[in-house]
Amino acid sequence: MTSRISRVLASLNTLSEWVDMQKKAAEMFSQINEIVNTSDRLTLVLVTRQAFQHMIRTLKAFDQWLNDPFILNYVTKDMLIDVWSTTYKILNELIELDIRHTLSVKEMAEKLIKEGKIIPFMELRSYEEEEGRRTTSPL
Hints:
The chain has four helices and no strands. It is mostly helical. The chain folds into two domains: 75 residues; 64 residues.
């Protein structure tokens, strides 16, 4: 019985470490956000990718939680509704962002090609050829 309680306490300690890490990440991204308007394009690409990687890591952890019976013992229906509601908002914002920027890139590329400002060095490829790449992008 004591070893079982010890394992539970160790797991709870891990959760505290995760929360501390997330708080540090939130602070770091807050600091980054303060400088992005004065950053160059490369920096913007790098910090955005860093944010994406953090989001992916967090999403994977949430997904693992939803598969973990130990964790689910302590998750109420209200907590699950909160997770779903927040997930739904983030999902819709992500989809809107993707649509907006995909269309902007397409329009900018078409405009520059028509103006002769860039050479179309990439052929349009079929979606089937896009293995390992973003499947919704024709480039």
